[in-house]
Write a structure and sequence with these properties.
Blueprint lengths: L22 H36 L4 E5 H6 L9 E4 L5 E5 L2 E5 L4 E6 L6
Antiparallel strand pairs: 1-5, 2-3, 3-4, 4-5
């Protein structure tokens, strides 16, 4: 059985364990794999950056209250966040990097900024 290049599908000559014709085919193949894997990561990072920007703009003083509707109107996505912080009282804050939010009893959210983060 003849082996073929994983990139260009041309027949391979040489070593039995050879996978590519040359360095160009090897680079093309690996770059394509890396690109396909990173598309999802790029999309998620774009949403996280947008969420952070929204929280930052709505919370210039480090702590404020806003409605769910206002967040949604700005394009905020509650699906993605970088981490969760739970207080001893059981409150759960969701963070997009250093900016976070806490769901209040109404349809309002308390926006906060981590005190230990640097600008």
């Amino acid at each position: 059985m003849e082996k073929i290049c994983l990139d260009c599908s041309e027949p391979l000559k040489g070593r039995a364990d050879k996978k590519f014709c040359d360095d160009q085919c090897r680079s093309n193949y690996n770059n394509r794999l890396k690109s396909e894997r990173s598309d999802f990561v790029k999309e998620v990072n774009a949403v996280l950056r947008k969420n952070r920007d929204i929280l930052q703009k709505l919370n210039p003083d480090g702590k404020t209250k806003v409605s769910r509707e206002k967040l949604l109107n700005k394009g905020f996505s509650f699906t993605y966040f970088t981490h969760v912080y739970q207080t001893q009282k059981g409150n759960t804050y969701y963070f997009c990097y250093e900016y976070g939010y806490l769901k209040l009893e109404s349809e309002d959210f308390l926006l906060v900024k981590r005190e230990d983060s640097q600008q």
